[in-house]
Amino acid sequence: MCLSPNILPAFEQLNLYEELMKFSKISRLNTFYTDKLKLIGKAEATNSEHIGYDRILFPRPELYELLFKQIPKEKIRLAKKVMSFQQNHEGIMLRFSDNTTIHGDILVGADGAHSSVRQHLYKTLEKQGLLPRSDTKHMNKGYISLVGTTDALDPKKYPSLTLPEAENSFIIGDKNTPYTWVTFTVPGNKICWCIIVQLGLTEIADEQFRSSDWVPQQNQKMMDLIRHFKTTYGTMGDLFDATPVERISKVYFEDMLFETWNHGRTVLIGDGIGAGAVNAMQDAVILANCLFDIMPTSYDNIKAALQEYKDQRFDYIKEQYSTSHASAKLQYGHTFSERIFRYIVFNWLPDSVIGAQLVKDSAYRPQANFLPEAPKRGTAPVLPQKPSRRLQEEAAKRSAAI
Length: 402
Description:
This protein is an alpha+beta fold and 402 residues long. Helices cover 37% and strands 20% of the residues. The radius of gyration is 22 Å and the shape is globular.
């Protein structure tokens, strides 16, 4: 998993940045190869001198553990599948598959591309004639991937493990395969790997997509098919054999820019576009800012806050939509036009243009506006953030009292 400068200030603001860096490696360069390990090109991933932060890579379980440690255990309830919910002026009630219910003021659906919260909300709105037609369409077929992290490996066999920065390799299969496979080194002498399958190219790819849950047997079937794929460390099979089954998981790269993000007491985050974890985390930061400003917690104020969240995020996400598509085509695309695009980027695009785009892409760095801001790093400009209305009002009241 990778995080960019667009969210790292929020981690620093929460005093989690240093701990995050303990299990991360800096990623400054991506190297692209053919399936025969012939060099395609190299791409700069960040420019910390101007931007102030590096792009970092790490195993997903390490981040999960870091975040879980910040939450009281009694706040987390596992094995709860949302079946339905009802909301009105008084509150919202969720019903789970085990026939239990829970009541609250606000429901935040943060459950991914196939969100059960979104599906139930959309069904309800569609019956009421309130759902835009664009939100009734199926999501675009994009990519699915299998990701894993090895156990600690022998640095003598894999000397690049000892390098201070991550070694990132994107290996793109030939025109007859839907696969791209990626490896990168992380602390602890481990290698993270990712198999990306481009949908709509072959029957085997679409067969994997139609399977809603990848059970270990299905994972193994796919892994057996690609064990022979070459990497800079040997074969993918060598990495599979060093990876415990509990560290292998599925990730969807489907995407769609939904118009409906909120209704009543319900709001969706991390669900507007298939643009990775950073956008989902930015959603959470902006939503937290809007929730903090709810005073008092009336139904109308809640609705206004959830709409404010969408208003602050939607234009940015819309702008990122094309950027996300272009990045996916560059890194994972197998069609003829995508291969031409990759050739142009690596052979004709000036480094100055790439550097300027990196600076521009890193300017949006939302933080919690109710906490002290993390100090600005780097020389590149950072977009201003909307201040907390609640804190402004409280400051005005204090000034008036004096």
